[in-house]
Amino acid sequence: MSFGLSPEPDFNFLQGMDFAKTLFRLWPSDVDIIFDPMETGNGIEYLPEQVISDVSWTDYHPIKQVYMTRNCNTGQMMWDPLTVINAVEGDDLFTLTERGTVVLNDDGTVIFTPSATGNSRFQMPGDDAWRSAMLEKNRNVNKIH
Q: Three-state SS across the chain?
């Protein structure tokens, strides 16, 4: 999902629009949702050689196998891992938008409307030092065995 002046349809929502709309409809209003838009995760790239090195402790790892057997000219962008880091480590590592409400449109775009009583916030992109720290947090998880 893109959070900015020209929002783009979210690929994952488009793959299961009925499920996504049901999730948005049934999500409890008293439970926060933190989104990681493309603008935040795009600046953090986990390069294929880093992935392979970080999981060198095993011969069989699904992500490692993909990078070793496919021509992947880019690494893994960090959208999904950032939401996990946020959930586990809390909000202090992130700059979040003000609270608001989110509507998922039929075309897969997301509309955010600021509201003090809303349960939705978006992670904002960080600087180079923050991006490096987030990449290292993710890399360290893969090195654990």
A: CCCCCCCCCCHHHHHCHHHHHHHHHHCCCCCCEEECCHHHHCCCEECHHHHHHHCCCCCCCHHHHHHHHCCCCCCEECHHHHHHHHHHHCHHHCCECCCEEEEECCCCCEEEEECCCCCEEEECCCCHHHHHHHHHHHHHHHHCC
pLDDT of 32 above 90: yes
Which strands sit side by side in the sheet containing 120-122, from one edge to the other?
A: 33-35, 120-122, 100-104, 110-114
Residue from 52, 47, 81, 80 nearest 65 by CA: 52
pLDDT in tens, 48-105: 888 888 988 998 888 888 888 887 766 667 778 898 899 999 999 999 999 999 999 9
